[in-house]
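Purpose: get a first structural picture of the assembly so the mutagenesis plan has something to point at.
Setup: two entries, given in the order below. No constraints added.
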Amino acid sequence: MRTKSDKQWAFVGHIIMICLTICAIAPFILLITASLTEEATALRDGYSFFPAKWSLDAYGYIVKQWAVIGRSYLVTITVTAVGTLVGVSISAMLAYVLSQRDLPGRGVILFLITFTMLFNGGLTSTYIIYTQVFHVKNTIFGLLLPNLLLNAYYVMMFRNYFENSIPKALVEAAHIDGASEMKIFRHIIVPLSLPMVASVSMIVALMYWNDWTNGLYYLSSNSKLQSIQTLLNNMNENIKFLQQNNNPALSGAAVNIPSATVRMAIAVVGIAPILLMYPFFQRWFVKGATVGAVKE
Amino acid sequence: MKKKKRIIWKKYIPLYIMALPALVYVIINNYMPLYGMQLAFRELDYSKGVFSGKFVGFQNFKFLFATKDAWMMTRNTVLYNLLFIVIGTVFGVTVAILFNEIRCKIAARIYQSAILIPYFMSMVIVSYLAFAFMGGENGFINNTLLKLLGKEPISWYSEAKYWPFILLFIHTWKGIGYSVLMYTVRLLTINDEYYEAASLDGATKWQKIWHITLPFLKPALILMTILSVGRMFYSDFGLFYQIPMNSGHLYNVTTTIDVYSFRALMNLGDITMASATGVYQSAVGFVLLLGANMLVRRFSKDDSLF
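Result (structure tokens, whole complex):
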């Protein structure tokens, strides 16, 4: 039964949500219209939702520069694919091991993992270890390894799922039939945990796709391994440099900075795959959040 | 007896092998840096190698806390965290309650999808969006909004006074979709019978929210707040580094502990100062987290981290 007061509340809800929806989307629309503005118009009127003159020049420039931008894309895709595959696999395997209650030494392993959630060596010592001991600077490992590969939180999520949602009898039956642990993991555990595996893979993939910090630390600015986010970040760094050294001789073509509209177009190219895959992403994300909440 | 034990060990070997890759990674990524923390207690001497400088005790920390920066970055980190916790919780709960009143399924789906988009964007992208609005020469605000109002353009990236609001706005803008999702998921588990019984007794909407909805959310709210307090010494590096475009005019209001250690390490190359900052952050952060966890344990044992 809907009373008048219910309807009033729903009305206020609609108003607030419409405002928030506009707030959430408007910046992306501005980014897209900015990238479609003619350069001279952008310089005269600034970025605008309704530019006086439209133009595809910025995207023409990107097509011309595809050697650089396409390579960044390839780096992003490779790092995301490899990082997600390896990261999720080793996390899920560890979680499976931790779900074996009778395993000798389980407590020690559990402590080693939990402790990483509480205490870390900090940015500087992580950086020194990776650069001085493992020499990952300017290698693909610099983008893949630091901080992103395994998160204790996801290991715990997997473990809870394996312990609570997989019928024990099934695993025992497989043991009696002589299946190896790896076989049980691959043919029983993973297929039965697909919703969880999909949600975590999606989050990890998004983290790799969006990561710019590893590029900032472990790549020099002329590296050929720049991912799309690192490329965008480096353009930012160059603009910062210009602003700090307000020297007219440096402005414009002297430093490698793409024009106002091209910058926006590269950003659009960077987020296009996320926006295109968004409906799919969002469904799994909401599902994952719901599963997590019901657990608590 | 002895024979039996050996067979059991053999049975577990495949499991240890399965755990090995993850453990090796954790040792490299999380435990070797703990060894690296000794840098904060040594002199830096490149001629001898990074880890072989003279041991100097707490001298590096004395230098760090003698600077004005130590106080500035601590103040910024803690105050922004407090601001984000309070505003984020109040705003998130309010929006979630209102969102929950909407009965039109299609509209609700559209709203939820829209407000979650920013959550999936990297801070670099957000800094481009912010720049499109606030850029000095091309920005939408200066060229369109302020012109319409007949006001002078504002040089956003050099006026420190606006930045606490700008950062709060962007933080909320990016996170609101996620926090509304988290609260809505919990609101959906409230049994409708409570509300119906309250309606029969003539309760108003306000009374229902105050006496049913909020008490139901209370455990989650307390838990999330305590955990955020445990993270009080950490900040979102991307937010404080990317969005202000590293503008020197804004350092005083945008430098958090994470930004400071980044700058000390990568821009100034001051490894000892950077690692002293890191040890300071890790140590205080650890104490705060332990304290927060103790509180959670007292309050609801299942939700504590350990």
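Chain B touches chain A through 103 residues (CB under 8 Å).
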